[in-house]
Structure formats: structure tokens, C-alpha cells
Amino acid sequence: MVTMNHLSVEDPDDGSPLLPEAVEAQTPTPVFRRQRAVAKTDSRQFFLSRRENLVFSLVLLIGCYSAILIPAYLPLDRMASVNDDYQQPKDLVLLNRSASLLSSPCQPRWCLNHLKPLACSAGLLDIPVFVQQDKPMPWELSPPLGLQGSEEHLTLALASLPQPGLPASLKGEGSCRRCVVVGNGGVLHGSYLGSHIDQYDIIIRLNNAPVPGFERDAGSHTTIRLTYPEGAPHSANEYKKTTMVALVVFKSLDLDWLISVITKQPLSFWSKLWFWREVVDDIPLGPENFRILHPEIIHKTGQVLQKYTQKQGNMVPTLGASAVVMALQLCDQVSLAGFGYDMQHPQARLHYYETLRMGAMKAQVVHDVSAEKLFLRDLVSAGAVTDLTGAL
């Protein structure tokens, strides 16, 4: 008689233990335990999947914010190198024409003789360039078209200038002078005009347009940098080859800034709060290297532009247009480089020194750049000025 106590768990054929699967098969698991195990596994997978989705969503969200915020707050690629795009001049015809112009002798009174046919010529002649102590005058308009309300600030500023008028180096009576007004336009990029620009007698630049690093296209010397406090370059390197800084007055505080820069006495904290952007505290030039642009340059330029626009009231021109009118007073021949906004191509380069695009100009409403382009185009068509970069 065989009892259950003597049953073997060995295989009857070879005496080896049964495989684990076989052992498990001999001890069946209750159905409710199997269901609970499956449910536990599904729950674990569900929570794991949800955690992975959450992590993925966070990474995606951070990536989107980075794509938006980094270019806005850390615009590392806005400053462009002159060697970024062009290894050869982009327009050899313009470059050769510029070289031919410089190889020809200077023509005295060239600008004045070619201005006469223009209807606006009367408003562009005999305008004082810099404010002088010995020629006081009653101001009928407030800055930037005049200096009404800023008389006391002006008196103090002129007292700090040893030579407030036109310097002897720019008078040059009996000699023929050539001017070039270097605009900030992207059309200058890739022009290879730098060595040509440096050959002019008077080189006029605007605001904080950089020179070091852009010599190939923009040249290396500056005779007059036309600017206002918020637009003045902060880097001392920008003034190394500069003869003069001419202040354009937009408010009385601008004259106080000039006094501060000349005397090396810093402005008060409260005064600085009135500037819409941080201003430079020190410019490494002597007092004799500063001037105050006569407001009549701005005023007369605005009056001429009124004939090209549909806007009413006193027009405030850009410093570029004002610099051209200033150059007409100083030189016999005037050339322009880097002028002309191509508003038909919003992806074109706005400035020669950065990657900001032309579409950004649509945001500004202060100046009428279309009217200014028509004005400059008339000057070029009449032969009064020469457009070296061909965008007008």
C-alpha cells in the first residue's frame, strides 16, 4: 500500500529534480492572487509612464522658454564681424568708382554749384555749424531745433570749452576739402570701402557706430562723431583715432552731461535717472576736442524735409540727414557711405555692425526715413553729393 507521504518529487526516469517551472506548476496560485499581481504591475507602469511624461514636458517647456529668452536678454550674435559673409567686395563697380573719385583732384565749391538747381537749395546754405560764445543769439525754439530754456546750461557748457567755434583745422580757407559721412546702414557691410574712407579730409560718424573690428568696410579714422549722451560709445577704443565729438542737444541735461565729461566731474545719481539709457561717464579726449552742434543744422534740415513728407509740424530729422547738411557747410565735395534703408527687404541687414534686420525700422515712429531718402536721392541726382554704396 502506497501512502502520499512517500511520494517523491524526483523524475521517475533519471532521478533529477524537477525544473522550477514544474515545481510551480505543481503548486497552483489562486486566481485572485494572480489578478492582484497583474493589477500591481499595471499600476507601476502607469505611474512610471506619467512621471516620464512630466519630465519630458518640463524639458520641452524649458527649451521653449530658452529659445525665447536667451536671444532677448543675451544677444550674443548681434555684433557681427566684418569677415562673416564676404571674402570679396560685393560690388566691384562701386568700389572702382570710389577709387576713381579719390584719384581725381578735389573740385572747389562742387557741392554749392550743384545745389543751385534744387528747389530746397536756399535752405541748405550758410548754416552755422557749431555754437560759439562770441555769437549769442535769442533762441526761439526749444531743443533740438533751438536752445530756448537751456540758456543757463549753455553758458556753463561754453565756459568749459576752450575753443567752442569751428577749429582752424576745419576752416582751411583757400584749400579744397572732401567730406565723407559714414552712415550706419547694413549696405556698408562687405563694401571694402575702409581704405577709401580714411583718405577723406573730414570723416563724420554717427552715435555709437563702432570702428575697431570694422576697419575693412568703415575705415579707422573719425574727424567728427556726431552724437547725444545716450548714443555716445562707451568703449574708450572708439575714441582712439577721433578728432572731435560734437554734441546734439535734445534736452538741457545733455549740456550738463557735456560739462561732466569735459571737467571729469560725474553727474549726480538723480541727474542720471533722467536719461533713457545709461550714459558714458568718461570720454578720453581733451576739452578742445568737444563742440556743440548748432541747432540750426537740425532746424534747417527739418524744414527741407518738410517738403518731402506729408507730416505736419516741425520735423526732427535723423542725425544722418543732419550730418549730411553739416557736411555741405564744411566741404567742397561730399560723399555718403552706408546710407539708404531698403524697407522692401525686411530681412536685409539694418546696420553694418550687427545682425539686426531691416524689419526693426517699422517700430520707430519719430523720424520719416522715407522723406529723408527722397531728399538724399535728390542730392545725389543733382550731383551735389556722391553715394559710394549705391543704396539711394
UniProtKB/TrEMBL annotation:
<keyword id="KW-0325">Glycoprotein</keyword>
<dbReference type="GO" id="GO:0000139">
    <property type="term" value="C:Golgi membrane"/>
</dbReference>
<dbReference type="Pfam" id="PF00777">
    <property type="entry name" value="Glyco_transf_29"/>
</dbReference>
<keyword id="KW-0735">Signal-anchor</keyword>
<keyword id="KW-0328">Glycosyltransferase</keyword>
<dbReference type="InterPro" id="IPR051142">
    <property type="entry name" value="Glycosyltransferase_29"/>
</dbReference>
<comment type="similarity">
    <text>Belongs to the glycosyltransferase 29 family.</text>
</comment>
<keyword id="KW-0472">Membrane</keyword>
<keyword id="KW-0443">Lipid metabolism</keyword>
<feature type="region of interest" description="Disordered">
    <location>
        <begin position="1"/>
        <end position="21"/>
    </location>
</feature>
<dbReference type="GO" id="GO:0006629">
    <property type="term" value="P:lipid metabolic process"/>
</dbReference>
<dbReference type="InterPro" id="IPR001675">
    <property type="entry name" value="Glyco_trans_29"/>
</dbReference>
<dbReference type="GO" id="GO:0047291">
    <property type="term" value="F:lactosylceramide alpha-2,3-sialyltransferase activity"/>
</dbReference>
<comment type="function">
    <text>Transfers the sialyl group (N-acetyl-alpha-neuraminyl or NeuAc) from CMP-NeuAc to the non-reducing terminal galactose (Gal) of glycosphingolipids forming gangliosides (important molecules involved in the regulation of multiple cellular processes, including cell proliferation and differentiation, apoptosis, embryogenesis, development, and oncogenesis).</text>
</comment>
<keyword id="KW-1133">Transmembrane helix</keyword>
<keyword id="KW-0808">Transferase</keyword>
<feature type="transmembrane region" description="Helical">
    <location>
        <begin position="54"/>
        <end position="74"/>
    </location>
</feature>
<dbReference type="GO" id="GO:0004308">
    <property type="term" value="F:exo-alpha-sialidase activity"/>
</dbReference>
<keyword id="KW-1015">Disulfide bond</keyword>
<keyword id="KW-0333">Golgi apparatus</keyword>
<keyword id="KW-0812">Transmembrane</keyword>
<dbReference type="InterPro" id="IPR038578">
    <property type="entry name" value="GT29-like_sf"/>
</dbReference>
<protein>
    <recommendedName>
        <fullName>Lactosylceramide alpha-2,3-sialyltransferase</fullName>
        <ecNumber>2.4.3.9</ecNumber>
    </recommendedName>
</protein>
